[in-house]
Design brief:
Layout: H1 21-25, E1 41-47, E2 53-59, H2 61-65, E3 69-74, E4 107-108, E5 114-120, H3 123-130, E6 134-139, H4 146-151, E7 164-171, H5 172-175, H6 181-189, E8 193-204, E9 213-217, E10 223-227, H7 232-243, E11 250-253, H8 269-281, E12 285-288, H9 291-297, E13 301-312, E14 318-328, H10 339-343, E15 357-364, H11 379-397, H12 401-408, E16 417-418, E17 424-425, H13 430-441, H14 443-456, E18 460-470, H15 478-483, E19 492-498, E20 504-508, H16 517-529, E21 536-539, H17 557-584, E22 591-594, E23 597-600, E24 606-608, H18 609-618, E25 631-636, E26 645-655, E27 661-671, H19 678-697, E28 729-732, H20 750-767, H21 781-790
Parallel strand pairs: 1-12, 10-11, 14-15, 20-21, 27-28
Antiparallel strand pairs: 1-5, 2-4, 2-6, 3-5, 7-15, 8-13, 9-10, 9-12, 13-14, 16-17, 18-26, 19-20, 19-25, 22-23, 23-24, 26-27
Bound molecules: pterin cytosine dinucleotide.
The site of pterin cytosine dinucleotide has 35 residues, from helix 16, helix 17 and helix 19.
């Protein structure tokens, strides 16, 4: 059979403007909250003001009597149909998992938990009546601090008997990929270098543009749910698995969704409650949260303490790494939840050749809202720790931070390389990315300026931050996820339908919420089938139209979903081949396919694939028995993760008198293999950088001693805008992935993963000569100033 022509063509690599943006930025889209159905009711949630309390009584009388109110439900009222919030897929058999009902009727375990719901004829009436619901609580002691949780002195869930959810470990010696880390540490204590540090990953709040919103219509043959979700397929599965509704009777639609960053990867109590109320009343219902509700009860990200021991020879050659995490899951085990810190297990060792390694995470419950994936999930935390440690090692050895990395990283001629954590990185070139970043940054000139400022005693000092990172993304082979006890597979599905008049329908199981899949997927299919970009329509985010899919998270959509498209397109071509052979009166084996045309090898006789599609409309030209269809399905399960990498360099100015920090320049050179659309990639990198920089400088969720979120609005939670950042310099090197035919690696989280340590390394570098070795994030002027004063961590 003739191979499909897979030469790169014009579409892949073309910086096309996103086709979806026209409707998104001109108000011609329909967000979930814009959906209005005849007779639709509006819901408002009554939420606990207490972090931990027993519910002793709920009086809904006044609310029921209020104008416009149709019904008020407590947890007991919908107990029969509310289902359970699908929470953890346990990390191991020992994991302790508290029950998690969407609306509990006996006890609340975090402030913001829902205790009643009002259904009314308008959103305003529902909100007003919610204030009239009178709930009696008996307050219980709450555990809010992660380290306190580890003592079990106060229990987040007394019934569990402990706050500990699970312990999970990866030991290189047991896995057979490395030596004994305890022995390496003992050896280093005898004359090598031992660096012991404790870093804090503060809680972050995903801040997507469109708050979460759900509409449920129970009146048709099927129950239809519209939701601002990243995961329509997973949501449908969870509803079917826990409410008793047959999967075939549930249609989930994710219309245009205004961002998620992991924060819409959860199946939420609000979705289950809206479904339950709609079914109880037999009427369409809508719930749209306020921004403060997102912040108080949506899931948060990060929240870890990291205890780290890195050991090395005196010349800086690393000999071992021990990682002990305490991870705060909040009140409940979420969909990925306990798996988030576990993702770090393969990433703390990063691009370096550690001969011995042990990773342990101990996950705890506290009385705060739950924690799950937030852009990068597990990998930013790991990258932060190792990149901070590499700077500490460089300082200890007395060499440049880039030199210490170069000494320890995997050289480009060593790929494929199986790391001490057992991951096989297929390709990469850390030397090339670093050389390019160094050049664009003007590394040597900036180091010279730094020296001059130090010597002159300038109150504004300059620091240079380095972050050479890799990440595992494109989750992942299903069998690997299975070994980790994840409840979902890592495959993706695609359907391609060649319509008869020249257009092509592409149906994907990925669920874009800002990533531009309609554009990028059109580019991939246009290239493969040789049809014009403009003739391709991408459909997604509706379980009726795209019944199979694993949705969008973990920078998986291109490397998994994009590859499924390639497989489906190749099947279309192979289905067209016998039809073309018949039309051309040639043998199928003598046909070549290129640029959308089959030609008989060695002649100019040919037929276009769109003409073949048209000819199947009548079928007049074909003999009996030929399949008259150019539609094909493909499901693709990747063979491995993809491993993008890059070098990020950041220059920060630190005013040693006030602690104020200013970003001077930021250069990143990312290697994400083949790039489908450089414009989309640029946007992804920019957005990712701002989120990572925000963790370093501004963002942090804070609770008071009662467990009230004090950063529950944008007045208190510092979310940066474009005005707070500088122009970034971005570039790319290319080491194609060998794990997929397009050679692509994911980009959706790269900027976030790499940038946080680059910024903090730069700040510490600026004031290291003053004795500062750490500044706790977010590095506010107060913390920086205190660190300088006390030459401590500036807590
Ligand atoms: N791309 C490309 N060439 C590459 C890699 C990617 O052209 N070598 C393009 C892809 O075609 C796709 C986009 O970049 O259009 C992102 O691709 P990918 O890295 O596969 O990531 P996903 O599409 O799976 O998106 C998920 C990722 C994650 S995990 C978070 S969090 C995140 C992110 O995407 N949340 C986002 N980017 C976001 N962007 C927006 N606007 N909003 C969010 O909520």
């Amino acid at each position: 059979m003739t191979a499909v022509d897979d030469r790169p063509t014009a579409e892949i690599g073309h910086a096309r403007k996103r086709k979806e943006d026209q409707r998104l930025i001109t108000g011609r889209t329909r967000w979930t909250d814009n959906i209005s159905l005849p007779g639709m009711l509006h819901l408002a949630m009554v939420r606990s003001p207490f972090a931990h309390a027993t519910i002793t009584g709920i009086d809904t009388g006044a609310a029921r009597a209020a104008t416009g109110v149709v019904a008020v439900f407590t947890g007991a009222d919908i107990a029969d149909i509310q289902g359970v919030n699908i929470t953890a897929w346990p990390l191991n058999a020992e994991q302790k998992t508290p029950d998690h009902l969407p609306m509990p009727s006996d006890r609340v375990a975090h402030a913001g938990e829902i205790v009643a719901v009002v259904a009314a004829r308008s959103a305003a009436a529902a909100r007003d009546a919610a204030e009239l619901v009178d709930v009696d609580y008996d307050e219980l002691p709450a555990v809010l601090d992660l380290k306190e949780a580890a003592t079990d002195a106060v229990l987040a869930h007394p019934g569990l008997g402990t706050n500990r959810s699970a312990v999970w470990q990866l030991d290189s010696q047991e896995g057979g990929t490395g030596g004994d880390v305890d022995e390496a540490i003992a050896r280093a204590r005898e004359g090598g270098i031992v660096i012991e540090r404790e870093y804090r990953q503060q809680r972050l709040i995903p801040a997507f543009m469109e708050p979460r919103s759900t509409v449920v219509d129970p009146t048709g043959e099927q129950v239809t749910m519209w939701s601002a979700t990243q995961v329509p397929h997973i949501l449908r599965f969870c509803i079917a698995a826990t409410t008793g509704l047959p999967e075939s009777k549930i249609r989930v639609i994710a219309p245009d969704v205004g961002g998620g960053f992991g924060g819409k990867l959860q199946t939420t109590p609000e979705e289950f409650i809206t479904l339950a109320v709609a079914r109880k009343l037999g009427k369409p219902c809508k719930f749209t949260e306020t921004r403060s509700e997102t912040m108080v009860s949506g899931h948060h990200g990060r929240d870890q303490w990291q205890r780290l021991t890195l050991v090395a020879e005196r010349d800086g050659t690393v000999t071992g790494l021990k990682v002990e995490l305490l991870a705060d899951l909040g009140a409940y085990a979420a969909l990925v939840g306990g798996g988030v810190p576990v993702l770090g297990a393969w990433m703390f060792n990063s691009i370096y050749k550690f001969p011995a390694y042990r990773f342990t995470t101990t996950n705890y419950y506290t009385n705060k809202t739950w924690v799950d994936a937030y852009r990068g999930a597990g990998r930013p935390e790991a990258t932060y720790a190792i990149e901070r440690l590499m700077d500490e090692l460089a300082s200890e050895v007395g060499v440049d931070p880039l030199e210490i990395r170069e000494k320890n990283w995997i050289r480009h001629d060593e790929f494929p390389f199986t790391t001490v954590a057992g991951m096989t990185y297929d390709s990469g070139n850390y030397e090339a990315a670093t050389a390019r970043a160094r050049e664009l940054f003007g590394y040597d000139e900036l180091r010279a300026e730094q020296r001059r400022r130090r010597e002159s005693g300038d109150p504004v000092q300059l620091g240079i931050g380095v972050s050479t990172f890799t990440e595992m993304c494109g989750l992942a082979p299903s069998r690997v996820l299975g070994a980790l006890n994840y409840g979902a597979g890592g495959w993706e599905h695609a359907t391609i339908r060649m319509l008869t008049t020249g257009t092509v329908e592409v149906i994907t199981g990925t669920s874009a919420h800002g990533q531009g899949h309609e554009t990028a997927w059109s580019q991939i299919v246009a290239d493969r089938l040789g049809v014009p970009f403009e003739n391709i329509e991408v459909l997604h985010g509706d379980t009726q139209i795209a019944p199979k899919g694993m949705d969008t998270y973990g920078s998986r959509s291109l490397v998994v979903g994009g590859e499924a498209l390639v497989l489906a397109a190749d099947k279309v071509i192979e289905k067209a081949r016998p039809l073309a052979a018949h039309l051309l009166e040639a043998s199928p084996d003598d046909l070549e396919f290129s640029g959308g045309r089959f030609t008989v090898r060695g002649t100019d006789k040919g037929v276009g694939i769109t003409d073949i599609a048209l000819s199947t409309w009548t079928g007049h030209d074909y003999p009996e028995g030929m399949e008259l269809s150019l539609d094909a399905d493909a499901t693709y399960d990747p063979v491995n993760f993809s491993f993008p990498h890059g070098t990020h360099l950041c220059a920060m100015e630190v005013d040693t008198e006030t602690g104020a920090v200013t970003m001077r320049s930021y250069v990143c050179v990312d290697d994400i293999g083949t790039i489908i659309n450089p414009l989309i990639v640029e946007g992804q990198v920019h957005g990712g950088l701002v989120q990572g920089i925000a963790q370093a400088l501004w963002e942090g969720a804070e609770y008071d001693e009662q467990g009230t979120l004090v950063t529950g609005s944008f007045v208190d939670y510092t979310l940066p805008t474009a005005a707070d950042t500088i122009s970034f310099v971005t570039d790319h090197t290319t080491s194609p992935s060998t794990y997929n035919s397009l050679g692509t690696k994911g980009v959706g989280e790269a900027g976030t993963i790499a940038s946080t340590p680059a910024v903090v390394n730069a700040i510490v570098d600026a004031v290291r000569h003053l004795g500062v070795t750490d500044v706790r994030m977010p590095c506010t002027p107060e913390r920086v100033w205190k660190a300088i004063q006390g030459a401590g961590s500036g807590t």
